[in-house]
Design goal:
By secondary structure, the protein is of the alpha/beta class. 40% of the residues lie in helices and 15% in strands. The strands form two sheets. A seven-stranded mixed β-sheet has the order 2-3-4-1-5-6-7. Helix 1 packs antiparallel against helix 13, helix 2 packs across helix 4 and helix 12 runs parallel beside helix 15. The two termini are 42 Å apart. Residues 312-322 have low confidence and may be disordered.
């Protein structure tokens, strides 16, 4: 195993040197990672971003677009032929058709290459032909990213952490009952192992629906083609001292180690370690709606996610010799169109406060980090209504359930984010001085002018931060 890992590492370094020289001397490539936990809007973000970069009429804050330096943009086959292509065309059709609907969520890694012809700047720009810049967009589930923390844990350490963390959660009651009835020192019985894995998976799904973000292993939630395999048939159990070789506990340990070696490490090596720009999408409004506990869980998840990155500057020699680092990271609160624009600054401030620990660590390492509130596809319009003697700033859209038009007032976010975060850190069960509610809206019917992408909120600012310096 050690020699195999060393061989993989040498091969990766050689490939990195070759890729780095090719990018430096010929056509630069930006590898943009897009991730986020469930229902954060990854698929919609990528679809709208690509559509808006192809038709740039709404991208005024992307300087290369507003200056007219982007001569052409086109989709072309991705270089990695072993990774599924992001299904841009069908996702775009879902959002812009006669009966618009939200596309299917991210369930595995996918990739898309968008290539630009860009006119150079500077004194000699008039004598230079347009250069080519490629943007490889890599879409992957945030649940898989959290698995990287497992690499530093043994099965015994992971089991102890998980069982301690879930001891008081109602969602885990059935699984904990299974554990209490299990003697892990006895010989492995495959039906017993499968039942434990199924019970733990049921807990993970319930915990995610309840607003918990520490739901690992991520492939239990999104198994893909590994569903039913032994590498996903394990679960946390109390330590058994000197367990016999064929005991259930030993087999669970073996499968946990196999999960790290066969699932987590290849994901890190083949996809994650090659990313140099990263956007993390966050459904902050959904967490606020679920209450202080969900907000605190989200804050911890953001810190854990950043701990998986290798932030820092991608200087030429370090990129060749040490591999890529994530040099720009954007934490974006999605669904800003669920609020009146008057509250967007407050949502951005909350996003910044939620990710403060993560941002400080990345900046210290030399990366550029930002937080903002966005809507990759605007599904609402704003409206002010008179109610109980005061004006309420509302949003109006088509409800996802029922298809009716409705105006909605979500409540007032605090100007000071610490009011939310302090209640979350203290473990309050409800918000004491506010009542926040979020509705689910369907995408609106669109009538797009030629050259204009879908309506959005600050998607052009996000693109400028993530890509603008290279365009």
């Amino acid at each position: 195993m050690v020699f195999t890992d060393l061989a993989h590492e040498v091969t990766r370094r050689v490939e990195a040197v070759g890729d780095g020289l090719n990018e430096a001397l010929f056509e630069p490539v930006i590898r943009l990672g897009v991730t986020g936990l469930a229902r954060s809007g990854k698929t919609v973000f990528i679809t709208s971003l690509v559509a808006s970069l192809l038709d740039r009429g709404r991208m005024s804050q992307l300087k290369a677009a507003s200056d007219g330096r982007i001569v052409a943009t086109y989709l072309q086959p991705q270089p990695n032929v072993t990774v599924p292509r992001f299904d841009y065309e069908n996702h775009y059709a879902a959002l812009t058709g006669q009966a618009p609907h939200w596309p299917e969520s991210t369930r595995a890694v996918s990739e898309l290459r968008l290539s630009f012809k860009v006119q150079p700047t500077g004194l000699l720009s008039g004598f230079q032909s347009p250069r080519t810049v490629h943007v490889d967009i890599v879409d992957y589930p945030g649940e898989w990213l959290l698995d990287l923390a497992l690499l530093d844990l043994s099965y015994a350490e992971w089991s102890e952490q998980v069982l301690s963390r879930i001891a008081d959660r109602t969602e885990a009651a059935d699984y904990l009952a299974q554990v209490s009835e299990t003697d892990a020192a006895l010989a492995l019985e495959e039906p017993k192992a499968q039942a434990l894995a199924a019970g733990f998976t049921t807990y993970l799904n319930a915990a995610r629906d309840a607003g918990y973000y520490d739901c690992t292993p991520g492939r239990f939630l999104l198994p893909g083609d590994l569903a039913g395999s032994p590498v996903l048939t394990f679960a946390p159990l109390p330590l058994v001292e000197k367990a016999p070789r064929r005991a259930l506990w030993r087999e669970m340990e073996r499968r946990f180690e196999a999960y790290k070696a066969k699932v987590v490490k290849p994901f890190f090596r083949d996809y994650f370690a090659r990313i140099d720009r990263q956007v993390v999408l966050v459904d902050a409004l959904g967490a606020i709606n679920r209450g202080p506990q969900a907000v605190e869980e989200m804050r911890r998840a953001m810190a854990d996610i950043l701990a998986s990155f290798r932030p820092g500057r991608n200087a030429f020699l370090s990129r060749l010799l040490m591999g890529k680092r994530v040099e720009r990271i954007l934490f974006a609160a999605t669904k800003a169109d669920h609020l009146h624009h008057r509250q967007h600054g407050r949502l951005t401030a909350i996003m910044g406060a939620l990710t403060r620990d993560a941002q400080d660590r990345a900046k210290f390492a030399g990366a550029k980090v930002d937080a903002m509130s966005i809507a990759a596809l605007r599904a609402t319009v704003e409206e002010t209504m008179r109610h109980a003697g005061r004006d309420l700033d509302c949003v109006r859209g088509t409800l996802l359930d029922g298809g009716k038009q409705a105006a909605f007032y979500p409540g007032e976010l605090p100007e000071d984010p610490s009011k939310l975060l302090s209640a979350a850190r203290k473990g309050d069960s409800t918000w004491l001085d506010g009542d926040y509610e979020i509705m689910s809206f369907a995408p609106a019917k669109l009538s797009l002018k030629p050259g204009f992408g879908p309506p959005h909120i600050r998607l052009d600012q996000a693109a400028q931060f993530l890509l603008g310096d290279r365009l």
